[in-house]
Amino acid sequence: MIVLLSPITKLYTVAFIVTLHIILMIGLAMVWVPAQTNGLNQLPSKLYPHGTAVMNTVQQVIGAVATAVSISILSSGMDHYLHTSAETSAVSNQMAELANAMTVGSEHVFWFAMIVAVIGLVISFFIRRVIVSQASAVTSPH
């Protein structure tokens, strides 16, 4: 889905973008739970609560950092477009140029997201899966 969002243009309808985003979020939900389970399986069962807390904290921090980086990329892309565009001087055309600048900035953000997704895909090939035995899975961490 990120691939479809990367070459975004003004011709994309809002419904199309929202549909792609919904599909992307469903895919993330389907991946996140098994990934978290696989990560917690690396720990002894008595450390599951701590592992969950650490994973949730890291998820929040990385989410905040990624949002800040994405907004910086969006602003930089818009700024670059507005400085290189020859049509920004016409007052009547400023709203159209701002829309074009937002489109270019958004495209840069989606390319950034696609690069991060590809890096995650490559890293996922090196993650080993740990099979938890029934005896250790039944014991309570408390």
How many alpha or pi helices? 5
- Uncertain segments are none
Residue share in helices?
over 70%
Q: Major β-sheet, in short?
A: none
Q: What's the N-to-C terminus distance?
A: 42 Å
Order of helices and strands: HHHHH
- If you compute it from the alpha carbons, what radius of gyration comes out, rounded to the nearest whole angstrom? 21 Å
Structural class: mainly alpha
Give the DSSP E fraction (strand runs of 2 or more residues).
Answer: under 5%
**Could you say which overall geometry the principal axes of the C-alpha atoms support?**
elongated
Q: How many beta-strand elements?
A: 0
Mean of pLDDT: 82
Task: Return the domain count.
Answer: 1
Q: Multimeric state of these chains?
A: single chain
Commentary on this structure:
The mean pLDDT is 82. Helix 3 runs antiparallel to helix 4. It is elongated and about 70 Å long. It is built from five helices and no strands. It has one domain (2-138). The two termini are 42 Å apart. It has helices spanning 2-5, 14-40, 48-84, 94-124, 134-138. It has 142 residues and is mostly helical.
